[in-house]
Amino acid sequence: MRDFTRRGFPGLPGLLVALVGCPGEDHPSNQPTFQSDSNEDDDPPGSQPSPTTALPTTSGGASTGGASTTDDPGTSGDPTTTTTIAASTDGPAPGTCGDGVIDPGEQCDEQFKNNSDSGACTSTCQLALCGDSLVWAGEEACDHGADNNSTAFGGCTEACALGPHCGDGVLQPDHEECDATAPPLEGMAPCNRGTCRFNARVAFVLSTKLSGALGGLALADIVCKDAAASQQLDNAASFKAWLSDGVATPQSRLKKAAADPGYPYALRDGKLLADDLADLITNGPKVPLDITEAGMQLPPLQFVWTNIGADGQPFSAVNHCKEWTIDALQASARVGKISPASAAELPAWRSQFLWTSDALNPCHSTAHIYCFED
Predict the structure, then answer these.
(1) Tens of pLDDT, residues 252-271
(2) Residue 49: is it exposed, middle or buried by C-beta count within 10 angstroms (0-12/13-18/19+)?
């Protein structure tokens, strides 16, 4: 038998190939051949031999290339490769927020169960801070982040405390009608603690003067509605003029107010005008109705168109500027006086119901009108 010879192939370092020959034969057809991993025919004479690749092995199961190899006793020594996988563990991976260790980039870490966006250490392992848009329970009343503002009504201050708001005991005229933090003040309408608005219907005297040609009751009402809307008053569309065309009465025109006993009327400044519509008609106003839609006080002795007598009924069936449509010289209508000349005259002004029935004025003259919320 011919001796085995080992031959190395350039480009395949460390790869060993055995050349095998038949004993007793030395002709070209019996030259050593190379086994291929495929089922292809032997290479034709003169072509490059096809090598057979063998896996690198080490005896005794030594580690090769990071994997352990062991001989399989059921084979002729071919190695079997096994890979070791690290076992998984419970909890966050080391170096992450929630592992209980303050890692680079973290300001705190009290573990997953203690990190909280309402606590001292947030869920992102940062210390709670006013301005981070998170409310630290027990330490901050609010936090609007970049929108914190120490002067905005209903906002959050730059110290994360409540800013000016309804119920803080300070009247914010641009946002509140009242601030109910104390017992009701005498002479003032009750204040709604939740909205800081008066629990009362509003009445005002129109700031401008008009002739008796108002366009009828319907257009006079529109004048009141527009004035209320210009000041953004609640229920602006419900306001009506305190007028009679010889037939209509306050009760027939202010039907909701007439059906709501015990709900008061107040001026724009919150002063209590009457306990309800019935009280106004029976006893007259508690204070002069001299505050305009804009909250300004008119001087005394100003006249208002009414044609409503002291008893709350039409004063005249004919003297109403022809149902408030003309300003002829010969026509006239009943007027009231919004306030007396002085405080000393106030009791008489009130007892005589001069606020609604004081004199007859020609329709071509000008006067104010009262506007009442229904």
Answers:
(1) 999 999 999 999 999 999 99
(2) middle
Q: What is the length of the chain?
A: 374
d(CA 292, CA 339): 13
Classify residue 70: in a domain, yes or no.
no
Is 3 domain-assigned?
no
Q: What is the CATH number of the domain that holds 257?
A: 3.10.100.10
- 101, 109 contact by CB (below 8 A): yes
Give the chain's domain count: 1
Question: In this structure, is residue 112 part of a structural domain?
Answer: no
Give the ranges where the chain is alpha helix by DSSP (H).
216-230, 250-253, 255-258, 277-283, 321-324, 346-351
CA 143 – CA 134 distance, rounded (Å):
6
Structural domain of 332: 200-372
The DSSP-derived string for 254-271 is SHHHHT-TT--EE-TT-B
- Asked, for residue 212, whether it belongs to a domain, the answer is yes
pLDDT single digits (tens) 13-42: 333 333 334 344 444 344 444 343 434 444
Closest residue by Cα to residue 241 from 226, 215, 220, 227: 220
Q: Contact, 333 vs 211, CB < 8 A?
A: no
